[in-house]
Amino acid sequence: MNILFIGDIFSSPGRDVLSNKLNIIVKKHQIDFIIANGENISHGKGINKNHYNFLKQLKINVITSGNHIFKQKETLEYISNSKDLLRPLNMNKSLPGLGTNIFKFKDKEIRVTNLMGQVFMDNVNNPYEAFDEIIFKDTSNIHIVDFHAEASAEKLAFAFNYDGKVTAILGTHTHIQTADERIMPNGTAYITDVGMTGSFDSVIGVNPEEVIIKEKLGLQTKFVPSTKPAKISAVIIKIDDTNNKVINISRINEY
């Protein structure tokens, strides 16, 4: 089985490149199951219902998110009925939506879990405590984790703690793809950050000009999503169908 995990989709350039290139990637790499982080797909913050439907029309199986999941108010209304749109499991339990779910695919049960880090992030519950409750009772064949976090050390420590207990732990949030993809000592696939599906000549998705004003002069300015050409940053997890073990993890970048 080949599972494609697409990094944070950012605004219209991210949507456009998916429309143009996703089918090519699926055919070229014989992709069976697709997961995408969609928390920035709507104008750089959040995911509205139209853009959720857009991703489903592209046959993306599961959509994960992160700290911007509820930036679009309508998400609070429709997420409860969208079992394939996940919000971080360790957010406040009173919030609507699922943080983990099992998806039946062919003869497999694929669990996807969305978690958020605590370092340099909005306040959330301890991800270890939230995840331990899932691990203890999980019976899925394959378990993919989107760990949405800022600090690379936090992501790596989390991965070492659960190495061998899940299929893959894939970092998101920084929008910069890292070159440390690996199969860990006990068999879990890992990368610190999958990267961004959006405008490459930007500052993590927005126009450099506004970011420079803030960083150089210390003035507050509105960040505007870039409209420059985009690329898809993603990873492919290859899994042995007989024993559900990871065979390979590889990065891809499609312009």
UniProtKB/TrEMBL annotation:
<feature type="binding site">
    <location>
        <position position="39"/>
    </location>
    <ligand>
        <name>Fe cation 2</name>
    </ligand>
</feature>
<dbReference type="InterPro" id="IPR029052">
    <property type="entry name" value="Metallo-depent_PP-like"/>
</dbReference>
<dbReference type="GO" id="GO:0004113">
    <property type="term" value="F:2',3'-cyclic-nucleotide 3'-phosphodiesterase activity"/>
</dbReference>
<dbReference type="Pfam" id="PF13277">
    <property type="entry name" value="YmdB"/>
</dbReference>
<feature type="active site" description="Proton donor">
    <location>
        <position position="68"/>
    </location>
</feature>
<dbReference type="InterPro" id="IPR005235">
    <property type="entry name" value="YmdB-like"/>
</dbReference>
<feature type="binding site">
    <location>
        <position position="39"/>
    </location>
    <ligand>
        <name>Fe cation 1</name>
    </ligand>
</feature>
<dbReference type="GO" id="GO:0046872">
    <property type="term" value="F:metal ion binding"/>
</dbReference>
<feature type="binding site">
    <location>
        <position position="8"/>
    </location>
    <ligand>
        <name>Fe cation 1</name>
    </ligand>
</feature>
<feature type="binding site">
    <location>
        <position position="173"/>
    </location>
    <ligand>
        <name>Fe cation 2</name>
    </ligand>
</feature>
<feature type="binding site">
    <location>
        <position position="175"/>
    </location>
    <ligand>
        <name>Fe cation 1</name>
    </ligand>
</feature>
<keyword id="KW-0479">Metal-binding</keyword>
<feature type="binding site">
    <location>
        <position position="67"/>
    </location>
    <ligand>
        <name>Fe cation 2</name>
    </ligand>
</feature>
<protein>
    <submittedName>
        <fullName>Putative metallophosphatase</fullName>
    </submittedName>
</protein>
<feature type="binding site">
    <location>
        <position position="148"/>
    </location>
    <ligand>
        <name>Fe cation 2</name>
    </ligand>
</feature>
<feature type="binding site">
    <location>
        <position position="40"/>
    </location>
    <ligand>
        <name>Fe cation 1</name>
    </ligand>
</feature>
